[in-house]
Fold these 2 entries.
Entry 1:
Amino acid sequence: MTVIRSMVLVSDDPLSRERNAGAVQERFAEEIRRRGLEGEIAVHTISGIRCKTVSPLAIVYPEAAVYGPMRVEDVPLVVEEHLVRRRPVPALMPPPHKFSGRLAWLPRRKGTLPAEQRVVLQRVGVIDPESLDDYLAHEGYEALRRVLGTSTPADVIDMVYKSGLQGRGGAGFPTGLKWRFVAGAKSKKKYVVCNADESEPGTFKDRTILEGDPHSIVEAMTIAAFAVGADEGYIYVRGEYRLAQARLRKAIRQARQAGFLGENILDSGFSFDIHVHSGAGAYICGEETALLESLEGKRGEPRFRPPYPTTCGLWCKPTLVNNVETLANVPAITRNGWQWYRMFGTPGSPGTKVYTILGNVKRRGVIEVPLGITLREVIAIYGGGMEDGTRLKLAQTGGSSGSVVPASLQDTPMDFNSYKQAGVSLGSGALLICNEDTCVIDLARVLMNFFRVESCGKCTPCRVGTRRAHAILTRISRGQGTMSDLDELETIAEALATLSNCGLGTSASVPLRDILRHYRAEVEAHLRLKVCPAGVCAMEGSRD
Amino acid sequence: MDAVVDSHRITLAVHEALEEHGHSRGELIPVLKAVGEALGYLPTLAMVEVARAMQIAPGQVFSVATFYTLIPTEPRGRHVIQFCESAPCHVQGGRLVWETLRAELGISPGETTPDGRWTLLTTSCIGQCDRGPVMMVDDDLHGDLTPDGVGEILERYE
Ligand SMILES: Cc1cc2nc3c(=O)[nH]c(=O)nc-3n(C[C@H](O)[C@H](O)[C@H](O)COP(=O)(O)O)c2cc1C
């Protein structure tokens, strides 16, 4: 089997055709053939992206490098340099803003490919994360300088609001609106808290940002603090993330020394400082009110709401809580403007999303792509396809609080709205890709075990429901389930969804609901026939 | 259990943690964590001393300490294994590795081997999923585990 290592897509639309795109494509094919690379490099057309100034375009994957306007005579250089020597040719690339956002429109059509777009991960892997100079050389603290120099807090909030940025911690709440609430709360003392407790199974995007670009979070928090009127901030970092903590502490020291943090920042009269707080090992502390309890030195048990943290948060002062990835978008938005930001993603869910791709794919890792890309594309382009010879059965999104997304939804655009309409959720950005060797009972049992272990025990539906559901699923996996287990699982799911005090219990209902909805036949096979169709469950007790 | 660590060491560890983090209520968790790290676990006597110094009820200190997995309240073996039992590691081959590991050690999660060499724990996720299945041995991360490779990793720890 030959593996396609690169792919060239040439734009195919009336404007591009008029400008000789056909000849460009032919020349690519010819140059590739001439070098005997036709087994390794594919050439296709791509429709639906056009841009007056840069068409015709050629997009080279997997780097997602965009060249344009392409002339026939430029082709040999791109082939020789990029495809043979693997050195992209920046001289032939248009500035990203000319085409960004347009690429995000592709996903609705099959067979077309959106590019990886880096906003949040722009500097990750590019700069030395421990060097302030390197950060400064890559537009670092420019946003803060501009904000403190020329904007009012209301301007900043307005900009974030109009950008359409939604919280990346899992719930997708409009960030600008949350900032407005905190800004509007009357209090001398306010806090900004960065939620870096990332503990969703399968999610390590925040760690990637914190380790790779710690100053961006310091800068973003300072901008947020200016906008909402806070003078003190906390970064609550998961206890196990020691490198991230060390880098944040170093970045904070550097920022203080350089006058980007502390008293009278950049001579603006505005003061703000940040503490790094290490978590002590409890998944539930990622829930924002549990996090605040934990910051106050207590058991991390979620509070009853209202009041919300925006009015009564840390030490009952108005508090802005935002996720790491959410904040990492802020400097880029304030630097480039909300119109720029809206060029990425879809109208309902602007911007990019960082995903971790895991499971039965050829390549695992972190990607940042526009919201609206489809699962099929993520797997094919970034995951390098499914593991040898296997087929997609389902994807589990967003760590344990996401959904079980059946293969039938793999062409649904992944953005907050489209997923909601399809009855699934994007969650925190983990994409656990599962092939047909996966058993839904086994998967649900592992997921439920997580909730059982991590339930804080404060409210009964969650404490009891997760234990009970785990026991039933375990029994089914041993071949000892009965049909009445189905009803009981449904009752538990209902109770978890409606009666739990916080999102942990609600989330625990999701895998139950999803497997019963999409994989009922497979579940029933375990019960009626005492057979695990995927051959995973031991069913060892079925003969007792 | 408290005989494992003598009271003088406990007093010293509590003193040092309070010096570093201060006495305010908000610092309770960092203080408990520091004492636990210094002593290997958090003995009851240490909780009582922290409670007295910070003027909090001992019961409250106990209830906070037992909430967090990074503050162990029981002595542990010389080496602590934390095996990730979350879905990504499970799907990526963790199930078989786990069975091998348990057979190799002969103990259940939460237990310590009779010779005091190993404590076996499970953990929800360590955020290293692209290298799954993973486990931590003390502070070392071991990724891309296979059933055959586990024994060799264990041998590296005395
Ligand atoms: C059980 C549970 C766990 C959560 N874990 C996290 C987490 O690890 N990191 C995070 O940013 N948000 C987490 N959240 C969401 C937070 O409660 C909160 O919505 C988020 O920090 C708000 O930030 P955002 O608006 O920027 O997304 C969790 C929520 C629940 C219910």
Note: The longest helix of chain B spans residues 87-105.
Entry 2:
Amino acid sequence: MGPTAKDMDALVSRGYEHGFVTEIETDVIPPGLSEDVIRQISLLKNEPHWVLDYRLKAYRHWLTMTPPAWASVHYPPIDHQAISYFAAPKKKPTLDSLDDVDPELLRTYEKLGIPIEEQKALAGVAVDAVFDSVSVATTFRENLAEAGVIFCSISEAMHDHAELLQQYLGSVVPHTDNYYAALNAAVFTDGTFVYVPKGVRCPMELSTYFRINAQNTGQFERTLIVADAGSHVSYLEGCTAPQRDENQLHAAVVELVAMDDAQIKYSTVQNWYPGDEQGRGGIYNFVTKRGDCRGDRSKISWTQVETGSAITWKYPSCLLRGEDAIGEFYSVAVTRGRQQADTGTKMIHIGRNTRSTIVSKGISAGEGNQAYRGLVRMAQKAENARNHTQCDSLLIGDRCGAHTYPYIEVRNPSAHVEHEATTSKISEDQLFYCRSRGISEEDAVSLIVNGFCKEIFNELPMEFAVEAQKLLAISLEGAVG
Amino acid sequence: MLLSIRNLKAEVDGKAILKGVDLEVRPGEVHAIMGPNGSGKSTLAHVLAGRDGYDVTDGEVLFEDQDLLALAPEERAALGLFLAFQYPVELPGVNNTHFLKEALNAQRRARGESELDSVAFLKLVREKMQLVSMKPELLKRQVNAGFSGGEKKRNEILQMAVFEPKLAVLDETDSGLDIDALRTVSDGVNALRSPDRAVIMVTHYQRLLDYIEPDFVHVLAGGRIVRSGDKSLAKELEQRGYAWLSDGEAA
Amino acid sequence: MSAADVIATDVTRVLADGLAHAGGAAANDALHAVRERGAERVRALGLPERRQEAWRYTSLGFLQRADYRPFMDGPFSELQMSDIEDLLLEGHQGPRLVFVNGHYAPALSTPGRSGDGLRVSTLAASGADALPADFDQIAAHGHVFSALNAALAADGALIEVTPGTELSDPIDVLHVAVGADEPVIFHPRHLFVIGQGARAALIERYASLGDSVYFNNVLLEIAVADGAQLRHECLQQESPLAQHLDDLNVQLGAGSTYRYTLAALGGEWSRCDITLRFAGEGASAELNGLMLARDGQLNDVHLDIDHAVPACSSRETFKSILDGRGRVVFDGRIRVARDAQKTDAALANHNLMLSRAAEVDTKPTLEIFADDVKCSHGTTVGELDKDMLFYLRSRGIAEPAGKRMLCQGFAEDVLHNFDDAAMRARAAHLLDQRLARSSE
Ligand SMILES: Nc1ncnc2c1ncn2[C@@H]1O[C@H](COP(=O)(O)OP(=O)(O)OP(=O)(O)O)[C@@H](O)[C@H]1O
Ligand SMILES: [Mg+2]
């Protein structure tokens, strides 16, 4: 699990030696951003006209915006003209089954810890793998089609499900929402579209693995999941990236819509390249994720395990509009080395009897710095709404930082908000106790940290929980001592 | 008649809990209500005291010929109805003595009686404290906040002793008491017994009935009083449990 | 941008007016320099905007409703003891310094003799004497109002408790505001220095005679030296039309103890900015506050607790009760600096909403850069507990009285920290009055 940076380099260069990339040659639009570039992207992707219009509208708005400065993360200004906004395989292979996928590619995924075959066999997971921004493999389509579930790339949806896409795209995160959301709306390359029809329980966990591969290519994924009345769906997102010297920008947008009685569970394990010990390289992960509980009794649950990226800036949020709607946010974030994370959630209670739960566990080691930033808003109409927030930070070492910035805005007296936060370190007593029972210091730390995060791991689907625990152990290797 | 409950039906969140309860209590009587967990005993007590959240869908409750259900909780208290809670509520920051005095005087005012001044009040409380052998320092503390389970129950009985209600409804006041406490609580109740007062005790244990001898024992099951008798019924329940009763009901 | 322009000109106008009014330079060079710096800072800062984090929830709309003028009449000499009789603390023995519209009123004050371990003077009277060494060394001047005070402060108490002294009685600093025909602004500025190992108690009070519009822009600097102890109790009962800003700056030496209790009850707009810095190891601070916000009132507390050195502890508990369209803002920040190991800090904020139209915005933040620390915060917002209310009613206490009792219980947590019995009684009485009025 979790290849080292060296493995990754070796892997990538071996890929070249073996003609790995010549088979799936990358077609890159030269760096730079302009209306022309956007038109070119749209043309290359053979998009309908309304998509181009949407992109241009977003781009023009983006030009009027400035990057957010309020988060407690620090990085040099990003030169958006130095980024290449499109990379696609020249030949898009048409795949009927997993067997048709390039075995080299499959091996790459395996090395990266993403054994599609195993996943398929073990868990019955449908996988829509994104390689350099464009989908190259989609499985389990038939099974899903039988249930009436649409699971495809956004590009496909533009043609095959134009009406649905047009109805929902940008309806949760408008292109005006924030700087990075606007950028994404202008240049999004591809992503995933899921539609679960009325009353359908999606027969399997849906999963997409992202991977950033080509140098200097920003990733602008876009995910849209619509759960119609009474439907249920669980979606898994995970990603890993090989080492690169230059910072790579990832500005994804995820939109979820849950209608009456619908439930969406969105789980993320994120372990992109965090940069080296000096803080060089590493991914900038600036993501806008928002769920809209439009229907009564709808439920959206975000679970995230964030161990990677040089900088993480994300606040998966819930708009609780329907009555009795439920929003949940469960998060584990690890920062070490020079990693910075500013993450949290927003729970906007609008409907009556809406409920939300926030559990955030932050672990800082080395010179890592992280902030929990959360907003709980009880609107005037949110009669009897409830929120409970628990924010715990664990500090490992004396050079790291942990910060908590909760914003609580209450406009309704019958609403109840409770917020608790604690900060602690792994105590000498705990470590000694473990060691006196024969457990090595490193294992003891891992044991204690896993205990600290238990509540969150319990929210993850089984196979993901195992992976997350391993990831946590790897990311904390050598953190103590 | 002090209290008469006729065909009382009540729901919580649309779920029927009391399904036609009939009960008559005359001054001077002690009634014990027993019954399986979840059968509606506390619900009955709460409906009598006027707690929100219960919909009375049918029936009536008369307290000295007045329509009890039309009254606010504080009006019921002033009339002489007292509920010792199964789970007494904690009131952080509210001083116990202050609370007792405010409550007593509010009841007295509502009845057109003169208020007790601090001296008279303290004298009364001290007297009653002895009756329930409560540690004096508990009076200086906040109402029930941080009290042990047994201390809370004693505090309820102290309130009862101070208010001298016409009808005391004791919801499992014996649960969680040690043997000495059970005795003092019983003494407190017995001291209150008089020809013009009555007591309804909700309990699960025969033992309490050894200390406070009931005139009647009722079994509340499935939202109805399924059996009434004298204290020998309690002995029978102790031996045979409740199943034979509800089986009989179902048949 | 026109609205912002109106405000911006307003503050520079206030500065210009104030400077013109002050008439010439301060007698004291050091004070003159402080004023110059203040004026520069006012010009540089301008009025805060909502975009600034510290002003995100604090509306400054009142600046557009009233045009504040400097208070022209100098020390308000007309007032007599009989006018402030109601404001005197029962049984108070210690020194009393009364400030009327920001100016020291000798006729109303009993400062006691200097000596006996206590040095008392006033800013206006300091003349050519050297200012205490700590003057202007503690204030952070984080916003324009503090800078405005620095530029324009005409008077205030300068109090030093000499090392090792144990004062038996608290020092009462009473601010009395007397309405003028037009809205006025004044800038009292105080310094309290508690010498090494000394013990003292300070009472800080704000009251008004009559309901008028004024802006009381206060600045306090407090230095508690190594091993010293200060008990600081503040009761704010400004006019319901007044604006009140209390910029409190505290610096704690090694092993010192500071205990602050606040009852912020009055004013139309009231804000306390409390900046507390641990400058020496092993010190401890306890801050408790009660805030009331009735209809149309904004009550705001900002805390900035800087655990700059190791092994200090702090406890902050702030509670609010809101009614009508009352608004409460609480922004509490605890910062633990790198290497400030063994810090122990706990921040709590609890808000009780009695009305449908009230608003609470609360932001308890932790910024932690050391690992061996114990830090926590807890926040709740909600209405009165229904079970509690039912319990009271089942004991014969009607709903309005029951609500009052529960509110008093809620406030008790803070009010019991008033060591001074007269202060405690006053605060409780004022709370009672307010609750009685709001349950009508
Ligand atoms: N607020 C409520 N919401 C939903 N159900 C309730 C509520 N209050 C009571 N009930 C249900 O009503 C039934 C009767 O409850 P009640 O408390 O009256 O039982 P009880 O006879 O006092 O039981 P016990 O002997 O355990 O005290 C239970 O099934 C309980 O779960
Ligand atoms: Mg019960």
Note: The longest strand of chain A covers residues 283-293.
